[in-house]
Amino acid sequence: MLTTIAQVGQHVGQEVRIGCWLYNKRSSGKIQFLQLRDGSGFIQGVVVKAEVGEDVWEKASQLTQESSLYITGTVRADDRAPSGYELTVTGVEIIQIAQDYPISLKEHGVDFLMDHRHLWLRSPRQRAVMAVRSEVIRAMYEFFQENGFYKVDPPILTPTSAEGTTNLFHTKYFDEDAYLSQSGQLYMEAAAMALGRVYSFGPTFRAEKSKTRRHLIEFWMIEPEMAFVDHEENLRIQEAFVSHVVQSVLKNCQRELKTLERDTSKLENVVGTFPRITYDDAIKLLQEKGSDIKWGDDFGAPDETLIAEHYDKPVFITHYPTEIKAFYMKPHPDRPEVVLCADLIAPEGYGEIIGGSQRIDDPELLEKRFAEHELSEEAYRWYLDLRKYGTVPHSGFGLGLERTIAWICGLDHVRETIPFPRMLYRLYP
Protein backbone atom coordinates (compact mmCIF):
# COMPACT_ATOMS: atom_id res chain seq x y z
CA MET A 1 0.00 0.00 0.00
CA LEU A 2 1.26 3.48 -0.86
CA THR A 3 2.04 6.05 1.82
CA THR A 4 3.26 9.65 1.55
CA ILE A 5 6.39 11.41 2.70
CA ALA A 6 4.30 13.41 5.17
CA GLN A 7 3.14 10.16 6.76
CA VAL A 8 6.46 8.32 7.07
CA GLY A 9 6.77 9.27 10.74
CA GLN A 10 3.96 6.80 11.43
CA HIS A 11 6.05 3.94 9.96
CA VAL A 12 9.47 4.17 11.62
CA GLY A 13 11.24 0.82 11.30
CA GLN A 14 8.75 -0.38 8.68
CA GLU A 15 9.04 -0.80 4.93
CA VAL A 16 6.93 1.65 2.91
CA ARG A 17 6.24 2.36 -0.77
CA ILE A 18 5.95 5.95 -2.01
CA GLY A 19 5.08 7.40 -5.40
CA CYS A 20 7.46 10.30 -5.96
CA TRP A 21 9.77 12.32 -8.21
CA LEU A 22 13.54 12.72 -8.04
CA TYR A 23 14.39 16.30 -7.06
CA ASN A 24 18.16 15.84 -6.92
CA LYS A 25 20.79 13.10 -6.64
CA ARG A 26 24.38 12.74 -5.53
CA SER A 27 26.65 9.73 -5.29
CA SER A 28 29.77 8.79 -3.36
CA GLY A 29 30.57 5.76 -5.49
CA LYS A 30 29.01 2.97 -3.44
CA ILE A 31 26.10 5.03 -2.04
CA GLN A 32 23.50 7.05 -3.90
CA PHE A 33 21.57 9.80 -2.10
CA LEU A 34 18.20 10.43 -3.72
CA GLN A 35 16.35 13.63 -2.83
CA LEU A 36 12.71 12.68 -3.33
CA ARG A 37 9.49 14.66 -3.32
CA ASP A 38 5.86 13.64 -3.57
CA GLY A 39 3.95 16.89 -3.04
CA SER A 40 3.46 16.29 0.66
CA GLY A 41 7.14 16.86 1.43
CA PHE A 42 10.77 15.96 0.75
CA ILE A 43 12.84 13.01 2.01
CA GLN A 44 16.25 11.52 1.31
CA GLY A 45 16.44 7.95 0.10
CA VAL A 46 19.79 6.20 0.64
CA VAL A 47 20.76 3.43 -1.80
CA VAL A 48 23.70 1.32 -0.57
CA LYS A 49 25.20 -0.78 -3.36
CA ALA A 50 26.26 -3.60 -1.03
CA GLU A 51 22.72 -3.91 0.38
CA VAL A 52 20.63 -3.91 -2.79
CA GLY A 53 20.66 -6.05 -5.90
CA GLU A 54 22.33 -4.93 -9.13
CA ASP A 55 18.89 -4.21 -10.63
CA VAL A 56 17.93 -1.70 -7.92
CA TRP A 57 21.34 -0.01 -8.06
CA GLU A 58 21.16 0.31 -11.85
CA LYS A 59 17.63 1.76 -11.78
CA ALA A 60 18.67 4.33 -9.17
CA SER A 61 21.67 5.23 -11.36
CA GLN A 62 19.38 5.91 -14.34
CA LEU A 63 17.24 8.45 -12.50
CA THR A 64 17.41 12.06 -13.71
CA GLN A 65 15.95 15.24 -12.25
CA GLU A 66 12.13 15.00 -12.12
CA SER A 67 12.02 11.35 -13.16
CA SER A 68 8.95 9.67 -11.66
CA LEU A 69 9.13 6.44 -9.70
CA TYR A 70 7.85 4.25 -6.91
CA ILE A 71 10.40 3.91 -4.13
CA THR A 72 10.38 1.16 -1.52
CA GLY A 73 12.41 1.42 1.64
CA THR A 74 12.63 1.23 5.42
CA VAL A 75 11.87 4.40 7.39
CA ARG A 76 14.37 5.46 10.01
CA ALA A 77 14.46 8.52 12.25
CA ASP A 78 17.33 10.92 11.58
CA ASP A 79 17.58 14.21 13.49
CA ARG A 80 19.96 15.60 10.86
CA ALA A 81 17.39 15.22 8.07
CA PRO A 82 15.16 18.27 7.39
CA SER A 83 12.06 16.07 7.63
CA GLY A 84 13.39 14.16 10.62
CA TYR A 85 13.42 10.87 8.66
CA GLU A 86 15.36 9.05 5.96
CA LEU A 87 14.58 6.08 3.77
CA THR A 88 16.90 3.11 3.41
CA VAL A 89 15.99 2.13 -0.15
CA THR A 90 15.24 -1.51 -0.95
CA GLY A 91 13.43 -1.11 -4.28
CA VAL A 92 13.06 1.24 -7.25
CA GLU A 93 10.31 1.05 -9.87
CA ILE A 94 10.77 3.60 -12.65
CA ILE A 95 7.64 5.18 -14.12
CA GLN A 96 9.39 7.60 -16.49
CA ILE A 97 12.92 8.91 -17.02
CA ALA A 98 12.62 12.68 -17.55
CA GLN A 99 14.79 14.08 -20.33
CA ASP A 100 16.38 17.55 -20.28
CA TYR A 101 14.30 19.05 -17.46
CA PRO A 102 14.49 22.80 -18.19
CA ILE A 103 14.75 24.13 -14.62
CA SER A 104 18.11 22.99 -13.32
CA LEU A 105 19.20 23.61 -9.73
CA LYS A 106 21.23 26.67 -10.74
CA GLU A 107 19.91 30.24 -10.59
CA HIS A 108 17.40 31.31 -13.26
CA GLY A 109 15.94 34.69 -14.19
CA VAL A 110 12.41 35.62 -13.16
CA ASP A 111 11.07 35.75 -16.74
CA PHE A 112 12.42 32.26 -17.42
CA LEU A 113 10.87 30.92 -14.22
CA MET A 114 7.54 32.60 -14.97
CA ASP A 115 7.53 31.10 -18.48
CA HIS A 116 7.99 27.72 -16.77
CA ARG A 117 5.65 28.40 -13.86
CA HIS A 118 3.96 25.04 -14.39
CA LEU A 119 7.29 23.39 -13.50
CA TRP A 120 8.64 26.02 -11.08
CA LEU A 121 5.80 25.10 -8.71
CA ARG A 122 7.67 21.84 -7.99
CA SER A 123 10.58 23.57 -6.22
CA PRO A 124 10.76 23.45 -2.39
CA ARG A 125 10.20 27.19 -2.02
CA GLN A 126 7.20 27.37 -4.34
CA ARG A 127 5.70 24.25 -2.82
CA ALA A 128 6.05 25.85 0.63
CA VAL A 129 4.24 29.00 -0.52
CA MET A 130 1.37 26.96 -1.98
CA ALA A 131 1.11 24.96 1.26
CA VAL A 132 0.88 28.19 3.26
CA ARG A 133 -1.76 29.47 0.83
CA SER A 134 -3.79 26.31 1.42
CA GLU A 135 -3.50 26.71 5.20
CA VAL A 136 -4.52 30.39 5.04
CA ILE A 137 -7.66 29.45 3.10
CA ARG A 138 -8.44 26.59 5.49
CA ALA A 139 -8.03 28.89 8.51
CA MET A 140 -10.26 31.55 6.92
CA TYR A 141 -13.05 29.05 6.37
CA GLU A 142 -12.58 27.74 9.91
CA PHE A 143 -12.89 31.21 11.44
CA PHE A 144 -16.10 32.05 9.64
CA GLN A 145 -17.60 28.61 10.21
CA GLU A 146 -16.93 28.90 13.94
CA ASN A 147 -18.36 32.43 14.15
CA GLY A 148 -21.77 31.92 12.56
CA PHE A 149 -21.09 33.08 9.01
CA TYR A 150 -22.66 31.55 5.90
CA LYS A 151 -20.68 31.21 2.68
CA VAL A 152 -22.43 32.81 -0.30
CA ASP A 153 -21.11 32.91 -3.88
CA PRO A 154 -21.64 36.20 -5.75
CA PRO A 155 -21.59 36.33 -9.57
CA ILE A 156 -18.35 36.87 -11.48
CA LEU A 157 -20.15 38.45 -14.46
CA THR A 158 -21.77 41.71 -13.36
CA PRO A 159 -23.69 44.52 -15.11
CA THR A 160 -22.04 47.29 -13.04
CA SER A 161 -18.95 48.18 -11.04
CA ALA A 162 -18.89 47.68 -7.28
CA GLU A 163 -17.02 50.91 -6.70
CA GLY A 164 -17.84 53.00 -9.75
CA THR A 165 -14.30 52.79 -11.13
CA THR A 166 -13.21 52.32 -14.72
CA ASN A 167 -10.63 49.55 -14.12
CA LEU A 168 -12.98 46.87 -15.40
CA PHE A 169 -12.65 44.03 -17.89
CA HIS A 170 -15.49 44.46 -20.36
CA THR A 171 -17.22 41.63 -22.16
CA LYS A 172 -20.49 41.08 -23.99
CA TYR A 173 -23.29 39.21 -22.23
CA PHE A 174 -25.23 38.29 -25.34
CA ASP A 175 -26.60 41.72 -26.36
CA GLU A 176 -25.72 43.47 -23.08
CA ASP A 177 -22.52 44.90 -21.65
CA ALA A 178 -21.01 42.99 -18.74
CA TYR A 179 -17.87 43.13 -16.63
CA LEU A 180 -15.68 40.70 -14.73
CA SER A 181 -16.26 41.25 -11.03
CA GLN A 182 -13.89 43.52 -9.13
CA SER A 183 -15.71 42.78 -5.86
CA GLY A 184 -18.63 40.72 -4.67
CA GLN A 185 -19.43 43.22 -1.93
CA LEU A 186 -22.72 44.65 -3.16
CA TYR A 187 -24.17 41.18 -3.63
CA MET A 188 -22.89 40.15 -0.21
CA GLU A 189 -24.79 43.06 1.33
CA ALA A 190 -27.95 41.59 -0.16
CA ALA A 191 -27.03 38.18 1.25
CA ALA A 192 -26.38 39.69 4.69
CA MET A 193 -29.93 41.05 4.75
CA ALA A 194 -31.13 37.47 4.28
CA LEU A 195 -28.62 35.48 6.37
CA GLY A 196 -27.18 37.97 8.87
CA ARG A 197 -23.46 37.23 8.58
CA VAL A 198 -22.02 36.03 5.29
CA TYR A 199 -18.74 35.80 3.40
CA SER A 200 -17.62 35.11 -0.15
CA PHE A 201 -14.32 33.84 -1.45
CA GLY A 202 -13.44 33.98 -5.10
CA PRO A 203 -11.48 35.59 -7.92
CA THR A 204 -11.69 39.29 -8.66
CA PHE A 205 -10.31 41.24 -11.60
CA ARG A 206 -8.80 44.72 -11.84
CA ALA A 207 -7.73 46.08 -15.22
CA GLU A 208 -5.05 48.29 -13.68
CA LYS A 209 -1.90 48.79 -15.74
CA SER A 210 0.28 48.41 -12.69
CA LYS A 211 3.54 46.48 -12.44
CA THR A 212 4.30 46.91 -8.73
CA ARG A 213 5.25 43.99 -6.48
CA ARG A 214 1.86 44.30 -4.75
CA HIS A 215 -0.43 44.04 -7.78
CA LEU A 216 -2.03 41.23 -9.76
CA ILE A 217 -4.66 41.51 -12.49
CA GLU A 218 -6.54 38.47 -11.18
CA PHE A 219 -6.50 37.87 -7.45
CA TRP A 220 -8.64 36.28 -4.74
CA MET A 221 -10.69 38.14 -2.15
CA ILE A 222 -12.53 37.07 0.96
CA GLU A 223 -15.40 39.47 1.60
CA PRO A 224 -17.55 39.25 4.75
CA GLU A 225 -20.68 41.36 5.24
CA MET A 226 -22.50 41.60 8.57
CA ALA A 227 -25.95 42.93 9.46
CA PHE A 228 -26.32 44.87 12.74
CA VAL A 229 -22.52 45.40 12.95
CA ASP A 230 -21.12 48.93 13.32
CA HIS A 231 -17.67 50.30 12.51
CA GLU A 232 -16.13 49.43 15.89
CA GLU A 233 -17.33 45.83 15.91
CA ASN A 234 -16.19 45.47 12.30
CA LEU A 235 -12.63 46.31 13.39
CA ARG A 236 -12.76 43.85 16.29
CA ILE A 237 -13.86 41.06 13.93
CA GLN A 238 -11.01 41.89 11.55
CA GLU A 239 -8.48 41.72 14.41
CA ALA A 240 -9.75 38.32 15.51
CA PHE A 241 -9.85 37.06 11.92
CA VAL A 242 -6.31 38.07 10.95
CA SER A 243 -4.91 36.85 14.29
CA HIS A 244 -6.58 33.46 13.81
CA VAL A 245 -5.17 33.06 10.30
CA VAL A 246 -1.61 34.03 11.22
CA GLN A 247 -1.52 31.86 14.34
CA SER A 248 -2.91 28.90 12.36
CA VAL A 249 -0.08 29.22 9.84
CA LEU A 250 2.49 29.43 12.64
CA LYS A 251 1.04 26.28 14.19
CA ASN A 252 0.54 24.17 11.05
CA CYS A 253 3.23 25.36 8.60
CA GLN A 254 6.42 25.44 10.66
CA ARG A 255 8.35 23.38 8.10
CA GLU A 256 7.21 25.57 5.20
CA LEU A 257 8.08 28.81 7.05
CA LYS A 258 11.52 27.34 7.76
CA THR A 259 11.97 26.53 4.06
CA LEU A 260 11.06 30.16 3.29
CA GLU A 261 13.51 31.35 5.97
CA ARG A 262 10.73 33.47 7.47
CA ASP A 263 11.47 35.32 10.70
CA THR A 264 8.43 34.03 12.59
CA SER A 265 9.02 36.32 15.60
CA LYS A 266 7.45 39.08 13.50
CA LEU A 267 4.29 36.99 13.13
CA GLU A 268 4.05 35.87 16.75
CA ASN A 269 3.02 39.43 17.72
CA VAL A 270 -0.09 39.22 15.55
CA VAL A 271 -2.58 38.57 18.35
CA GLY A 272 -5.08 40.64 20.34
CA THR A 273 -5.94 44.21 19.44
CA PHE A 274 -4.18 46.11 16.67
CA PRO A 275 -3.01 49.73 16.90
CA ARG A 276 -5.05 52.45 15.20
CA ILE A 277 -4.22 55.82 13.72
CA THR A 278 -6.69 58.22 12.17
CA TYR A 279 -6.19 59.53 8.67
CA ASP A 280 -5.74 63.02 10.18
CA ASP A 281 -2.92 61.86 12.45
CA ALA A 282 -1.35 59.79 9.67
CA ILE A 283 -1.15 62.91 7.48
CA LYS A 284 0.54 64.81 10.33
CA LEU A 285 2.98 61.94 10.89
CA LEU A 286 3.96 61.86 7.22
CA GLN A 287 4.35 65.65 7.09
CA GLU A 288 6.61 65.51 10.15
CA LYS A 289 8.76 63.02 8.25
CA GLY A 290 9.15 65.47 5.37
CA SER A 291 6.34 64.36 3.06
CA ASP A 292 4.50 67.02 1.06
CA ILE A 293 1.25 65.04 1.29
CA LYS A 294 -1.87 67.13 1.96
CA TRP A 295 -5.18 66.36 3.68
CA GLY A 296 -7.42 64.85 1.03
CA ASP A 297 -4.63 62.95 -0.75
CA ASP A 298 -4.72 59.17 -0.83
CA PHE A 299 -1.78 57.19 0.54
CA GLY A 300 0.71 55.55 -1.78
CA ALA A 301 2.81 52.49 -0.98
CA PRO A 302 5.73 54.52 0.48
CA ASP A 303 3.29 56.39 2.76
CA GLU A 304 1.76 53.16 4.06
CA THR A 305 5.23 51.74 4.71
CA LEU A 306 6.30 54.82 6.69
CA ILE A 307 3.20 54.58 8.85
CA ALA A 308 3.57 50.82 9.40
CA GLU A 309 7.18 51.24 10.54
CA HIS A 310 5.89 52.72 13.80
CA TYR A 311 4.18 49.48 14.81
CA ASP A 312 5.08 45.80 15.29
CA LYS A 313 1.57 44.64 14.37
CA PRO A 314 -0.81 45.41 11.52
CA VAL A 315 -2.21 48.93 11.99
CA PHE A 316 -5.64 50.34 11.15
CA ILE A 317 -5.75 53.72 9.39
CA THR A 318 -9.28 54.99 10.06
CA HIS A 319 -11.66 57.75 8.94
CA TYR A 320 -10.47 58.62 5.45
CA PRO A 321 -11.93 61.64 3.61
CA THR A 322 -15.31 60.95 2.06
CA GLU A 323 -14.11 62.29 -1.30
CA ILE A 324 -11.46 59.60 -1.82
CA LYS A 325 -13.49 56.59 -0.71
CA ALA A 326 -16.24 54.51 -2.31
CA PHE A 327 -19.79 55.82 -2.61
CA TYR A 328 -21.31 53.27 -0.21
CA MET A 329 -19.28 54.16 2.91
CA LYS A 330 -21.19 55.72 5.81
CA PRO A 331 -20.13 59.24 6.84
CA HIS A 332 -19.02 59.88 10.40
CA PRO A 333 -22.11 61.22 12.23
CA ASP A 334 -20.17 64.21 13.65
CA ARG A 335 -17.80 64.73 10.70
CA PRO A 336 -19.50 64.06 7.36
CA GLU A 337 -16.25 64.94 5.55
CA VAL A 338 -14.81 61.58 6.69
CA VAL A 339 -16.26 58.08 6.57
CA LEU A 340 -16.47 55.19 9.04
CA CYS A 341 -13.83 53.10 7.35
CA ALA A 342 -10.41 51.58 7.92
CA ASP A 343 -7.58 50.10 5.91
CA LEU A 344 -5.48 47.47 7.66
CA ILE A 345 -1.79 47.94 6.81
CA ALA A 346 0.54 44.96 7.22
CA PRO A 347 3.98 45.44 8.77
CA GLU A 348 7.30 45.20 6.92
CA GLY A 349 6.21 47.22 3.89
CA TYR A 350 3.48 44.89 2.62
CA GLY A 351 0.82 47.58 2.51
CA GLU A 352 -2.95 47.33 2.69
CA ILE A 353 -4.32 43.84 3.19
CA ILE A 354 -7.88 44.78 4.25
CA GLY A 355 -10.23 47.57 3.28
CA GLY A 356 -13.50 47.84 5.17
CA SER A 357 -16.23 50.20 6.32
CA GLN A 358 -19.66 50.62 7.76
CA ARG A 359 -22.04 50.92 4.82
CA ILE A 360 -24.61 53.65 4.21
CA ASP A 361 -28.01 52.47 5.49
CA ASP A 362 -30.03 55.65 4.75
CA PRO A 363 -31.81 55.32 1.37
CA GLU A 364 -31.94 59.09 0.82
CA LEU A 365 -28.22 59.50 1.41
CA LEU A 366 -27.47 56.58 -0.89
CA GLU A 367 -29.53 58.17 -3.67
CA LYS A 368 -27.57 61.38 -3.14
CA ARG A 369 -24.32 59.41 -3.50
CA PHE A 370 -25.57 57.90 -6.77
CA ALA A 371 -26.00 61.41 -8.15
CA GLU A 372 -22.62 62.64 -6.85
CA HIS A 373 -20.79 59.68 -8.39
CA GLU A 374 -22.88 59.78 -11.59
CA LEU A 375 -24.07 56.21 -11.08
CA SER A 376 -27.11 54.90 -12.90
CA GLU A 377 -30.08 54.66 -10.54
CA GLU A 378 -31.59 52.07 -12.87
CA ALA A 379 -28.51 49.83 -12.66
CA TYR A 380 -28.28 50.17 -8.87
CA ARG A 381 -32.01 50.05 -8.10
CA TRP A 382 -31.71 46.61 -6.54
CA TYR A 383 -28.93 47.89 -4.25
CA LEU A 384 -31.16 50.77 -3.12
CA ASP A 385 -33.94 48.26 -2.36
CA LEU A 386 -31.75 46.89 0.45
CA ARG A 387 -32.19 50.27 2.19
CA LYS A 388 -35.89 50.65 1.35
CA TYR A 389 -37.05 47.33 2.72
CA GLY A 390 -35.78 46.82 6.26
CA THR A 391 -32.54 48.82 6.33
CA VAL A 392 -30.18 48.14 9.25
CA PRO A 393 -26.67 49.22 10.26
CA HIS A 394 -24.22 46.90 8.55
CA SER A 395 -20.52 46.64 7.83
CA GLY A 396 -18.03 44.56 5.90
CA PHE A 397 -14.52 44.25 4.62
CA GLY A 398 -12.41 42.64 1.93
CA LEU A 399 -9.08 40.88 2.45
CA GLY A 400 -6.73 40.36 -0.49
CA LEU A 401 -5.47 36.79 -0.24
CA GLU A 402 -2.24 37.17 -2.20
CA ARG A 403 -0.98 40.26 -0.35
CA THR A 404 -1.73 38.54 2.94
CA ILE A 405 0.23 35.44 1.89
CA ALA A 406 3.14 37.59 0.67
CA TRP A 407 3.30 39.21 4.12
CA ILE A 408 2.99 35.97 6.08
CA CYS A 409 5.65 34.25 3.92
CA GLY A 410 7.93 37.28 3.75
CA LEU A 411 7.99 37.29 -0.07
CA ASP A 412 9.30 40.09 -2.27
CA HIS A 413 6.51 39.87 -4.86
CA VAL A 414 2.90 38.66 -4.96
CA ARG A 415 3.56 36.69 -8.16
CA GLU A 416 4.80 33.75 -6.02
CA THR A 417 1.62 33.62 -3.92
CA ILE A 418 -0.76 32.34 -6.61
CA PRO A 419 -0.27 29.19 -8.74
CA PHE A 420 -0.50 30.94 -12.12
CA PRO A 421 -0.23 34.73 -11.75
CA ARG A 422 -1.94 37.08 -14.15
CA MET A 423 0.07 40.28 -14.40
CA LEU A 424 0.41 43.13 -16.84
CA TYR A 425 1.50 41.56 -20.17
CA ARG A 426 1.60 38.01 -18.72
CA LEU A 427 -1.14 35.53 -19.62
CA TYR A 428 1.08 32.44 -20.07
CA PRO A 429 1.08 29.70 -18.97
UniProtKB/TrEMBL annotation:
InterPro entries the record matches: Aa-tRNA-synt_II, aa-tRNA-synth_II, aa-tRNA-synth_II/BPL/LPL, Asn-tRNA-ligase, Asp/Asn-tRNA-synth_IIb, NA-bd_OB-fold, NA-bd_OB_tRNA
Keyword Protease: no
Molecular function GO terms recorded: asparagine-tRNA ligase activity; ATP binding; catalytic activity, acting on a protein; nucleic acid binding; transferase activity
Keywords of the record: Aminoacyl-tRNA synthetase, ATP-binding, Cytoplasm, Ligase, Nucleotide-binding, Protein biosynthesis
UniProt xrefs under Pfam families: tRNA-synt_2, tRNA_anti-codon
Subcellular location(s) of the protein: Cytoplasm
Catalysed transformations (reactions): tRNA(Asn) + L-asparagine + ATP = L-asparaginyl-tRNA(Asn) + AMP + diphosphate + H(+)
EC id: 6.1.1.22
Boundaries of every Aminoacyl-transfer RNA synthetases class-II family profile domain copy: 132-429
GO biological process, one term: asparaginyl-tRNA aminoacylation
PROSITE patterns named among the record's database cross-references: AA_TRNA_LIGASE_II
GO cellular-component term (any): cytoplasm
Assigned protein family: Belongs to the class-II aminoacyl-tRNA synthetase family.
Assembly notes: Homodimer.
Cross-referenced HAMAP family: Asn_tRNA_synth
The protein, known as: Asparagine--tRNA ligase
Organism: Brevibacillus panacihumi W25
